[in-house]
Amino acid sequence: MSNVMKKVKKTTVGKVHVDALAYTAGDDAALDTVLIEADCIGTAAHVTMLARMPLKPKLFSPAERTRVVKELVKIIGQARKGAFKIRATDQDVHMAVERHLIAQLGDLGKRVHTGRSRNDQVAVDIRLYARDELSDIMEAALALADILVAWAAKHEDLPMVGRTHMQPAMPSSVGLWASAHAEALLEDVSLLTAAYDLTDRSPLGSAAGYGVPLPIDRALTAKLLGFGAMHHNVLHASNTRGKCESIVLSALAQVMITLSRLAQDLMLYTMPEFGYFTLPAEYCTGSSIMPQKKNPDVLELLRARAIRIAADASAAAQITASLPSGYSRDLQETKALLLNGLQATAASIAIMQPIVRRMKANRKALANGFTPEVFATDRALELMADGTPFRDAYRQVKDNLDSLADRDPQQVLALKTHVGAPAGLDLTAMATKIKAEAQAVRKQRQSVQRAVSRLLGVPGPRR
Ligand code: ARG
Q1: Residue 419 CB contacts under 8 Å (≥ 6 apart), including other chains
Q2: How far, in Å, CA of 348 to CA of 129, rounded?
Q3: Beta bridge partners of 17
């Protein structure tokens, strides 16, 4: 036997050279660890549907179905303890779960894969996983928005110089600054909700993308898994792999853009030269050589991760855009992008919550920013009161910038009462909106958990 042939292994999916196996499996064995639970839940739905399929004899009797589901619940228990291992020879979670079921249940285990493909499985696993993660991320983003609004309310009238081009522009307030970021998050949650709605559709029953000659009940599996809807056309269901990932990543990238801009503001305004805000010291890190250092490493890494997620969203879109209809293995590469994106966004929101909650606003440093020119525009608008056209007032102020007297920023701010301006923020309305959104996410999560508990016959997974 040639040296090459000595390295050919017999696997469930054919005789393959070990190098080709390793190359194609990539990091799946490690990555798929977070999908074990989802794979078991998806399998439980599939087997439950197979058991109800009008065949004679039945593929699974009710008792056999229960045995399979019990075994799947056992795997979930092991996975939660980190005790269920995906072996390199399994290649991925799907083969690992099937290997386990066959080892434990024999012929019963061998019937589980009837009428479905791994493409089916991975698509459904990703939906189930992303659905849970998106719920968490939406709740966390809303909680952060709430913290920002509370912080804004605490400093609603505290004057702060508003900037354009980073240069002093007009009198503004800490309340306006903080609640602007909250509103951005609230709008990002709308994108996450749209991403959730598209994720919350069952792709199951597509098999290899072309259906199967069996009376499978796709609506039943969708319902058993608590999906809000299902993809109708089986080829389309298969083609949504990659597209779903890129949609979710795009929404996550928007959240990260919002957080990155908040982080950027904080890095700027906590520089000693500004000193407007002080970061909680316990969220800053020191230096190995400079004893005095308290660095905003958290904010810097968040800024870099925002760029990475935006790049990953683009990578997922481009991988998908280049593919013909039907499954191609390229899609496997979108998995790491999605999982990383979900995990990094969740972690970024989580770390920003205590930082915002615990940061301090420094009244004196904020007041020191108010040089007389900051009032130039307000002064020009004031001159219009006696009928001077704005352009003339503008010129008059521009020619006499030196004579702009110091004003009380608080008084100037109190005049900006229109909707959304420093004295027209209506933070209570915003807090109410955030609460309502959070309530909707909670309800959705509960209905998913109820469905999955019913399917498994044990209390809902994960949370
Ligand atoms: N690990 C694979 C993926 O992520 C599972 C599906 C494999 N399907 C196939 N036809 N080779 O795409």
Answers
A1: 426
A2: 19
A3: 8
Nearest CA to ligand 1 atom 12: 332
Q: Report the pLDDT value the prediction gives residue 5, as an integer from 0 to 100.
A: 85
Q: Which CATH class is domain 3-111?
A: mainly alpha
In the structure encoding, which two tokens stand for residue 247, read together? 């949609």
The residues annotated as belonging to the active site are 165, 287
- pLDDT tens column, 236-263: 999 999 999 999 999 999 999 999 999 9
Is residue 463 over pLDDT 60? Answer: no
Atom from ligand 1 closest to the CA of residue 25:
1
Distance, in Å, from the CA atom of 195 to the CA atom of 249, rounded to the nearest integer, reads: 9
% of the chain residues with pLDDT over 90: 92
**331 CA distance to ligand 1 middle (Å):** 8
Decide: 202 and 218 in contact? Cβ < 8 Å: yes
For ligand 1, atom 3, which residue shows the shortest CA distance?
332
Beta bridge partners of 159: 173
CATH superfamily of 118-155+175-368+433-456: Fumarase/aspartase (Central domain) (1.20.200.10)
- Tell which atom from ligand 1 comes closest to the C-alpha of 118: 6
Domains of the chain: which residue ranges?
3-111, 118-155+175-368+433-456, 372-414
Full-model pTM? 0.96
Q: Is the CB of 118 under 6 A from ligand 1?
A: yes
CA distances in angstroms from 179 to 255, 296, 314, 360, 422, listed in the order given: 15, 22, 29, 16, 10
Query: pLDDT by residue (tens digit) across 28-41?
Result: 999 999 999 999 99
Q: Where are the alpha helices (DSSP H) in 106-166?
A: 107-110, 118-154
